[in-house]
Amino acid sequence: MAQFNICVLKGDGIGPEIVDEAIKALDKVGEKYGHTFVYDEQLIGGAAIDEYGVPLPDVTLKAAKASDSVLLGAVGGPKWDTLEPATLRPERGLLGIRKELNLFANLRPAKVWGPLAESCPLKPERLGTGLDLVVCRELTGDVYFGRKWRDEEGVGHDDMNYSVAEVERIARVAFDMAMKRSKKVTSVDKANVLETSRVWRETVKRIAAEYPEVEVDYFYVDNTAMQLVLNPSQFDVILTGNLFGDILSDEASCITGSVGMLPSASLSDTTLGMYEPIHGSAPDIAGRNIANPIATILSAAMMLRYSFGLAQEADAIEKAVETALEQGYRTGDIAKANEERISCSQMGDIIANLI
Ligand code: NAD
Predict the structure, then answer these.
(1) Which of 94, 166, 181, 73 has its CA nearest to residue 134?
(2) In a mutational test of the pocket of ligand 1, which residue from 21, 75, 279 has the highest number of ligand atoms less than 8 Å from its CB?
(3) Which residues are catalytic?
(4) pTM of the prediction?
(5) Which of 47, 72, 139, 150 has the fewest CB atoms below 10 angstroms from its CB?
(6) Alpha helices in 67-194 (DSSP H)
(7) pLDDT tens-place string over residues 96-110
């Protein structure tokens, strides 16, 4: 019996609708397994801009830092996306909270769920034994955080850099995860061209030696992009830097064919993490109770697994999602033309009842 304090940031658009369904699943887990989840709801993104004039108010940051973990919906929408200065736009709230909470490891599982295999845009023979991988992306370094400047000739520069310490800590996250999965890591870089990547590869090789049971491959990023569509089932944990991870995780997720199904976790070097669906705030369908809440529900499962150490409870949520899909329940985004569609809240109720 334990109590966990969750900072809830519903955000904008469909954020409030999908987060409510994840809370239903958490409450059901609490009831069944005897845990108490306490929610502290705060504003972020456009909702925070409307209330406080900034996308990440101090009160939100303070609550996030004081919590055991953060559950986020999504931020953004046409009302705020063109605000000037750009520091006042909703996504700055996200970048700010990632930085402030030191969330250096971004985990994005990409899985083709059996009952949804037809949504995969690849030919069945390409899918092989299926797609079930995790992209483990470094999130606070690389060219995104290097010095940015224009010289006297107007040439733009973005400094790309990685320290050994930064690579070591993300490599350990990937290898620890591989130990809990199928003991296979593919480290992705561009070591034939980039010095940063040579530091990356040397460091990953050194950390790999601490995990003799894990099989490691070293791929160049261009080859990885091709292999993901040619033979995706060869991958399990993909370990990579911020820039390459940004692109490869989007590629991996589109292979699954359903953006509304994909969760993510951003981890720090403590147990405090932030959990959110990979999709945005979907303003085109907001307020209609038709969004797919599964990505957010699965994000809550990741929170149980990675921040609270509740693997059995996380398994229970994932199994409930699988059963709901097997029983044929579909929101609009994953339904075929002739299939009946259920609402966001109905999907949340069904999953909670199956836990
Ligand atoms: P989006 O992911 O919000 O939507 C893309 C398409 O997918 C839309 O057609 C949408 O209806 C659909 N979709 C997304 N999630 C869905 C779900 N759960 N169920 C059913 N359909 C779903 O991307 P976008 O349209 O490019 O961006 C919309 C807003 O979201 C923008 O303001 C953008 O800046 C923001 N955004 C936020 C995040 C985040 O908060 N992490 C990420 C990406 C985009």
Answers:
(1) 181
(2) 279
(3) 144, 190, 222, 246, 250
(4) 0.93
(5) 150
(6) 90-100, 124-127, 164-180
(7) 999 899 999 999 999
